[in-house]
Amino acid sequence: MTFSEIYQEFLTGMKHTTLLEYIAVLSGVASVWFSRKESIWTYPVGLINTIVYIYLSFKGHLLGEASVNFYYTVMSLYGWVVWAKRNKQLEHVVKITRSDTKWWIYQWLFFIAFYVAIFSLLTYLKKDFYPGAIPWADAFASSTAFTGMWLMTRKKVESWWWWIATDFASIPLYFVKHYTFTSVYYFVLLIFAFWGLAEWKRRASQT
Length: 207
Hints:
Number of strands: 0
Mean pLDDT: 86
Number of domains: 1
Low-confidence stretches: none
Helix content: over 70%
Radius of gyration: 17 Å
Number of helices: 8
Oligomer: single chain
Shape: globular
Strand content: under 5%
Protein backbone atom coordinates (compact mmCIF):
# COMPACT_ATOMS: atom_id res chain seq x y z
CA MET A 1 0.00 0.00 0.00
CA THR A 2 1.14 3.52 -0.77
CA PHE A 3 1.26 6.23 1.90
CA SER A 4 -1.82 7.84 0.33
CA GLU A 5 -3.76 4.58 0.56
CA ILE A 6 -2.70 4.04 4.17
CA TYR A 7 -3.73 7.60 5.05
CA GLN A 8 -7.10 7.15 3.35
CA GLU A 9 -7.60 3.87 5.19
CA PHE A 10 -6.79 5.67 8.43
CA LEU A 11 -9.39 8.38 7.79
CA THR A 12 -12.03 5.83 6.84
CA GLY A 13 -11.28 3.75 9.89
CA MET A 14 -11.51 6.72 12.22
CA LYS A 15 -14.95 7.57 10.83
CA HIS A 16 -16.17 4.08 11.72
CA THR A 17 -14.73 4.02 15.23
CA THR A 18 -17.46 3.04 17.69
CA LEU A 19 -18.18 4.50 21.12
CA LEU A 20 -17.14 1.20 22.71
CA GLU A 21 -13.76 1.40 21.02
CA TYR A 22 -13.26 4.96 22.29
CA ILE A 23 -14.12 3.83 25.84
CA ALA A 24 -11.71 0.89 25.58
CA VAL A 25 -8.88 3.03 24.24
CA LEU A 26 -9.24 5.86 26.77
CA SER A 27 -9.49 3.49 29.74
CA GLY A 28 -6.48 1.56 28.41
CA VAL A 29 -4.35 4.69 28.13
CA ALA A 30 -5.39 5.73 31.65
CA SER A 31 -4.49 2.27 32.99
CA VAL A 32 -0.99 2.40 31.49
CA TRP A 33 -0.54 5.91 32.88
CA PHE A 34 -1.40 4.61 36.37
CA SER A 35 0.93 1.60 35.98
CA ARG A 36 3.85 3.88 35.11
CA LYS A 37 3.20 5.66 38.41
CA GLU A 38 2.83 2.31 40.25
CA SER A 39 -0.74 3.22 41.21
CA ILE A 40 -3.30 0.60 42.27
CA TRP A 41 -5.79 2.33 39.93
CA THR A 42 -3.98 0.49 37.13
CA TYR A 43 -6.24 -2.50 37.67
CA PRO A 44 -9.82 -1.22 38.21
CA VAL A 45 -9.46 1.16 35.26
CA GLY A 46 -7.80 -1.55 33.19
CA LEU A 47 -10.76 -3.89 33.77
CA ILE A 48 -12.99 -1.53 31.78
CA ASN A 49 -10.53 -1.72 28.90
CA THR A 50 -10.15 -5.50 28.92
CA ILE A 51 -13.84 -6.36 29.17
CA VAL A 52 -14.74 -4.12 26.23
CA TYR A 53 -11.87 -5.49 24.13
CA ILE A 54 -12.96 -9.08 24.73
CA TYR A 55 -16.17 -8.20 22.92
CA LEU A 56 -14.46 -6.20 20.14
CA SER A 57 -11.81 -8.87 19.55
CA PHE A 58 -14.35 -11.65 19.10
CA LYS A 59 -16.30 -9.42 16.75
CA GLY A 60 -13.17 -8.81 14.63
CA HIS A 61 -12.04 -12.47 14.63
CA LEU A 62 -8.98 -11.54 16.68
CA LEU A 63 -9.08 -14.67 18.76
CA GLY A 64 -5.58 -14.25 20.10
CA GLU A 65 -6.39 -10.75 21.29
CA ALA A 66 -9.67 -11.95 22.80
CA SER A 67 -7.76 -14.55 24.81
CA VAL A 68 -5.25 -11.89 25.83
CA ASN A 69 -7.96 -9.61 27.16
CA PHE A 70 -9.66 -12.44 29.03
CA TYR A 71 -6.28 -13.20 30.56
CA TYR A 72 -5.81 -9.48 31.30
CA THR A 73 -9.13 -9.48 33.14
CA VAL A 74 -8.17 -12.42 35.35
CA MET A 75 -4.65 -11.11 35.94
CA SER A 76 -5.95 -7.61 36.69
CA LEU A 77 -7.94 -9.06 39.58
CA TYR A 78 -4.86 -10.97 40.73
CA GLY A 79 -2.57 -7.95 40.31
CA TRP A 80 -5.03 -5.76 42.19
CA VAL A 81 -4.74 -8.09 45.19
CA VAL A 82 -0.93 -8.42 44.96
CA TRP A 83 -0.29 -4.68 44.58
CA ALA A 84 -2.61 -3.91 47.50
CA LYS A 85 -0.75 -6.16 49.96
CA ARG A 86 1.13 -4.35 52.72
CA ASN A 87 3.25 -5.53 55.64
CA LYS A 88 2.90 -4.49 59.29
CA GLN A 89 4.80 -1.29 58.53
CA LEU A 90 2.16 -0.52 55.86
CA GLU A 91 4.79 -0.86 53.13
CA HIS A 92 3.96 -2.56 49.85
CA VAL A 93 5.01 -6.22 49.94
CA VAL A 94 5.82 -6.37 46.21
CA LYS A 95 8.33 -3.76 45.03
CA ILE A 96 9.71 -2.88 41.59
CA THR A 97 12.74 -5.06 40.86
CA ARG A 98 14.77 -6.35 37.91
CA SER A 99 14.67 -9.97 36.79
CA ASP A 100 17.50 -12.23 37.88
CA THR A 101 18.59 -15.25 35.81
CA LYS A 102 15.81 -17.43 37.22
CA TRP A 103 13.12 -14.91 36.28
CA TRP A 104 14.56 -14.51 32.76
CA ILE A 105 14.32 -18.27 32.24
CA TYR A 106 10.77 -18.30 33.61
CA GLN A 107 9.55 -15.55 31.32
CA TRP A 108 11.09 -17.01 28.14
CA LEU A 109 9.64 -20.44 28.87
CA PHE A 110 6.31 -18.77 29.62
CA PHE A 111 6.39 -16.89 26.30
CA ILE A 112 7.43 -19.90 24.19
CA ALA A 113 4.82 -22.20 25.74
CA PHE A 114 1.99 -19.75 25.08
CA TYR A 115 3.20 -18.91 21.57
CA VAL A 116 3.25 -22.56 20.50
CA ALA A 117 -0.14 -23.26 22.09
CA ILE A 118 -1.89 -20.18 20.66
CA PHE A 119 -0.35 -20.50 17.20
CA SER A 120 -1.39 -24.16 16.97
CA LEU A 121 -4.93 -23.41 18.13
CA LEU A 122 -5.44 -20.46 15.79
CA THR A 123 -4.01 -22.37 12.82
CA TYR A 124 -6.61 -25.08 13.44
CA LEU A 125 -9.51 -22.66 13.96
CA LYS A 126 -8.61 -20.55 10.93
CA LYS A 127 -9.49 -23.37 8.54
CA ASP A 128 -13.18 -23.67 9.35
CA PHE A 129 -14.21 -21.09 11.93
CA TYR A 130 -12.19 -17.87 11.84
CA PRO A 131 -10.72 -17.26 8.37
CA GLY A 132 -9.83 -13.69 9.38
CA ALA A 133 -7.34 -14.86 11.99
CA ILE A 134 -3.60 -14.29 11.43
CA PRO A 135 -2.08 -17.09 13.56
CA TRP A 136 1.59 -16.05 13.72
CA ALA A 137 0.80 -12.37 14.39
CA ASP A 138 -2.03 -13.07 16.85
CA ALA A 139 0.11 -15.63 18.68
CA PHE A 140 3.07 -13.26 18.98
CA ALA A 141 0.97 -10.31 20.18
CA SER A 142 -0.85 -12.58 22.62
CA SER A 143 2.20 -14.36 24.04
CA THR A 144 4.20 -11.20 24.60
CA ALA A 145 1.18 -9.62 26.27
CA PHE A 146 0.61 -12.67 28.47
CA THR A 147 4.23 -12.49 29.59
CA GLY A 148 4.18 -8.73 30.13
CA MET A 149 1.00 -8.85 32.21
CA TRP A 150 2.32 -11.63 34.43
CA LEU A 151 5.57 -9.76 35.06
CA MET A 152 3.63 -6.55 35.69
CA THR A 153 1.73 -8.16 38.56
CA ARG A 154 5.12 -9.02 40.11
CA LYS A 155 6.43 -5.51 39.38
CA LYS A 156 9.33 -6.66 37.21
CA VAL A 157 11.05 -3.93 35.16
CA GLU A 158 11.27 -6.28 32.17
CA SER A 159 7.49 -6.34 31.84
CA TRP A 160 7.81 -3.11 29.87
CA TRP A 161 10.02 -4.79 27.23
CA TRP A 162 7.29 -7.35 26.66
CA TRP A 163 4.70 -4.57 26.42
CA ILE A 164 6.88 -2.84 23.82
CA ALA A 165 6.95 -6.05 21.75
CA THR A 166 3.17 -6.37 22.10
CA ASP A 167 2.60 -2.80 20.96
CA PHE A 168 4.86 -3.16 17.92
CA ALA A 169 2.93 -6.26 16.85
CA SER A 170 -0.53 -4.86 17.59
CA ILE A 171 -0.24 -1.58 15.65
CA PRO A 172 -0.35 -3.19 12.17
CA LEU A 173 -2.51 -6.11 13.36
CA TYR A 174 -5.43 -3.92 14.37
CA PHE A 175 -4.95 -1.61 11.39
CA VAL A 176 -5.45 -4.41 8.87
CA LYS A 177 -8.51 -5.53 10.86
CA HIS A 178 -9.96 -2.01 10.43
CA TYR A 179 -9.78 -1.08 14.12
CA THR A 180 -7.93 2.09 13.22
CA PHE A 181 -8.41 3.94 16.50
CA THR A 182 -7.17 0.88 18.38
CA SER A 183 -4.10 0.84 16.12
CA VAL A 184 -3.43 4.45 17.12
CA TYR A 185 -4.04 3.44 20.72
CA TYR A 186 -1.25 0.87 20.55
CA PHE A 187 1.05 3.50 19.10
CA VAL A 188 0.32 5.68 22.13
CA LEU A 189 0.90 2.69 24.41
CA LEU A 190 4.25 2.09 22.70
CA ILE A 191 5.36 5.58 23.67
CA PHE A 192 4.04 5.09 27.21
CA ALA A 193 5.85 1.73 27.44
CA PHE A 194 9.23 3.32 26.79
CA TRP A 195 8.32 6.00 29.34
CA GLY A 196 7.23 3.36 31.86
CA LEU A 197 10.41 1.37 31.27
CA ALA A 198 12.57 4.39 32.10
CA GLU A 199 10.50 5.20 35.18
CA TRP A 200 10.59 1.65 36.57
CA LYS A 201 14.33 1.37 35.90
CA ARG A 202 14.79 4.51 38.00
CA ARG A 203 12.60 3.17 40.82
CA ALA A 204 14.30 -0.23 40.78
CA SER A 205 17.69 1.41 41.22
CA GLN A 206 16.41 3.13 44.38
CA THR A 207 15.36 -0.10 46.14
